[in-house]
Specification:
InterPro entries: Cyt_c-like_dom, Cyt_c-like_dom_sf, Cyt_C6, Cyt_C_IC. This protein is mostly helical and 133 residues long. It is 60% helix and 0% strand. The protein is elongated, with a radius of gyration of 23 Å.
């Protein structure tokens, strides 16, 4: 034991901080196991659907108009296609669990509402109508 009480307290503080860091580092991979819909979309879907587009069949986008046209504008329809795949789109049923697929489908519908642009909220109404034309 150090004879200087300040030195002793600083050792305790260092030990506590190291402990907190160790716990945080230990927990963070657990937190990372539940990624958001956006993260899941980026790692599983964006290769073909970057920005809500479709690089293989260009008219089958994830935009609101296309989803409505092809009756894909519901959680159930998106969930079904993600689980089972369709033509050139692979099935994700074996790779993603139900919770993850729900998160992705919710994200896709939400982004379709925003026209896949996070700037929509800050745009003026004139910019929004220009974007739509
Ligand atoms: C390898 C490329 C590829 C990947 C990866 C992919 N898709 Fe697709 N996706 C397609 C193709 C191709 C179609 C059109 C299928 C058809 O109708 O023939 C499509 C269609 C869709 C549609 C319907 C669009 C419309 O306008 O009808 C949705 C919704 C969709 N994909 C969601 C997803 C989601 C969510 C993921 C990630 C889990 C994903 N896709 C991953 C290729 C892909």
């Amino acid at each position: 034991m150090s004879t200087n009480p300040l030195k002793c307290w600083s050792k305790i503080a260092i030990a506590l901080i190291s402990c907190a860091i160790a716990i945080f580092v230990g927990i963070s991979p657990v937190l990372a196991e539940v990624p958001s819909g956006e993260q899941l979309f980026n790692s599983n879907c964006s290769a073909c659907h970057i920005g809500g587009n479709n690089v293989i069949i260009s008219h089958k986008t994830l935009r609101k108009e296309a989803l409505e046209k092809y009756a894909m504008n519901s959680l159930e329809a998106i969930r079904y296609q993600v689980v089972n795949g369709k033509n050139a789109m692979p099935a994700f049923g074996g790779r993603l669990n139900e919770e993850e697929i729900d998160a992705i489908a919710t994200y896709v519908l939400g982004q379709a509402e925003l026209d896949w642009s996070t700037k929509v909220e800050v745009s003026t109404s004139q910019e929004v109508s220009e974007r739509k034309s």
